[in-house]
């Protein structure tokens, strides 16, 4: 099988800081990771390759340093990494991002052949929009299978696939046609440790880098800030409530504090106490 | 890259002052739409919440509010139009077709796109549910318009533009996003973020039917079966009157039970902050916040939770927020009503016992 996996390099959320004066995110010095949601797609891709043979290509759009996350993915066992990087992509929103990635996928498909599956992360941990995968599917005419918890059956020859999909009130069992864009649900698998030879190969691998022109993008008005219909107009800190919390002094031991806290709660919400007392089946 | 709607340094500044004219062909786009999520014979509550919010936006703009309802007749679609009117819609675009009986991306995207091009709304709101997120991204891409995910606040600015506010990465900031030169302006909003409006029984409106050209043969995805969830699990959390939650301040997985015990004594439900889910201490359906459940209880007790913006937006609808935290400067004290600077691991059992005693005494007395 031929499988593409789109990944994104994101700042490690545990270590993000915001500049106290300018209110911008201080990315400098923050370690980056592969968006954790992307790893479920990568692992699923590697499992399919284990079963059917073929290749797993990881793709990303980002600054030059994003090649590090591609290298990391090679270390898990992916075959090839492709980076789309160009200053024209700076400031892309999800629409401009799905445009650029769709062009990257098409260019890669020219070289390698059309993939049967494109995996995308369910969402990223930094933007959390869940829009890029569907955007790519729409642009490339791929069957869209989001929130997939398991691939039950797949026949690459016939081009058929059956999946379990996490819907709002239960699990849908869907059958569809390849090529498909799939986002895997978190917890559906666990990323493997790369083998020694994968890790060695990754360290030396050459990451292919393309710019906008190389993937055939001629209309730059579809890229980056210009190609993004959404505009961030204002970034601000949320207003504190007009009064701060009433603080219950934690003196006189824990039990006294607990009692004082309960008094304060019920003093403010007398109805709540009545509700609780009359609630059936209490202790 | 700003692929995430995360403001990068300078991006907000350089574009903030930018104001362009709306292209001519978009000026005829009027009215506010709410996509009505209709599954298993009922409307998802988030759609009714959005009708309430959409009503306010439509009134401010002086335009009509429409519900967009897709489905297949035998499943009670007509009753659903009545609910749309009761919750504030002036009209309902009704698309009744066997191919639409169960949600699938392809036919729903096709119909929504056709409706937008034909009836031209300026704003379209969808619930940020699994279905809404699956659909919104496809529709926005087909229409090449802007979509803002997981908004926590919507407003109309001086230039008739939708100001969609959502938290940004980093834990302490909000950003306001506009779709200036494209229509419709699309946004998704999570369940329970907007208040449920009061229905007006007997309120009437117009039904505008639309007949799409859909053939089952041309739809590549088929639903083989549907395995409904058992309703018992954490589904009640979003609707509980009392919620107790823990954060990283609990320090260990064992201490989750301290939260559960207090919730049990109060007859409430329980949850936690996202890091607890990431550590595997609690299930994802117990996460409270922007990317988890939004709650609107009468009482919310947060133990060992710092109060990051993503958590805050999920709990601000609570009537009363009580915070227990060892750090007197924790951000949660900025929006809690009552606070105690204390070790949650020590205080929670004492609080549980004190509540139990107090309720017991009162029950005996009453
Ligand atoms: C895109 C995105 C979406 C997110 N969505 C969510 C979401 O939906 N929900 C969510 O909760 N978070 C979400 N987050 C994470 C959020 O930014 C915070 O990281 C998270 O809420 C912090 O959890 P916490 O308060 O439990 O942990 P911490 O920030 O580590 O805070 C622990 C707190 O416990 C206090 N403490 C320590 N010891 C004790 C003790 N013994 N007793 C009492 N207090 C103690 C500390 O003072 C501190 O305030 C999201 C983040 C991103 C980037």
UniProtKB/TrEMBL annotation, chain A:
An example molecular function term from Gene Ontology annotations: electron transfer activity
Record carries keyword Aminoacyl-tRNA synthetase: no
Highest classification ranks of the organism: Bacteria, Pseudomonadati, Pseudomonadota, Alphaproteobacteria, Acetobacterales
Gene source species: Acetobacter lovaniensis
CDD domains: ETF_beta
Classification via SMART domains: ETF
Domain Electron transfer flavoprotein alpha/beta-subunit N-terminal: 22-219
Pfam family for this entry, one: ETF
UniProtKB keywords: Electron transport, Transport
InterPro entries: ETF_a/b_N (IPR014730), ETF_b (IPR012255), ETF_beta_N (IPR033948), Rossmann-like_a/b/a_fold (IPR014729)
Key word Nucleotide-binding present: no
Protein name: Electron transfer flavoprotein beta subunit
From TrEMBL, chain B:
Record: residues binding FAD: 273-274, 287-291, 304-311, 325
Domain Electron transfer flavoprotein alpha/beta-subunit N-terminal: from-to ranges: 32-223
GO biological process: fatty acid beta-oxidation using acyl-CoA dehydrogenase
Cofactor(s) for this UniProt protein: FAD
SUPFAM superfamilies linked to this entry: Adenine nucleotide alpha hydrolases-like, DHS-like NAD/FAD-binding domain
A single GO molecular function term of this UniProt record: electron transfer activity
Annotated PROSITE patterns: ETF_ALPHA (PS00696)
Cofactor note: Binds 1 FAD per dimer.
Keywords: Electron transport, FAD, Flavoprotein, Transport
Pfam families reported in the protein's UniProt record: ETF, ETF_alpha
Record-linked InterPro entries: DHS-like_NAD/FAD-binding_dom (IPR029035), ETF_a/b_N (IPR014730), ETF_a/FixB (IPR001308), ETF_alpha_N (IPR033947), ETF_asu_C (IPR014731), ETF_asu_C_CS (IPR018206), Rossmann-like_a/b/a_fold (IPR014729)
Family (UniProt): Belongs to the ETF alpha-subunit/FixB family.
Name the UniProt record assigns to this protein: Electron transfer flavoprotein alpha subunit
Organism per entry: Acetobacter lovaniensis
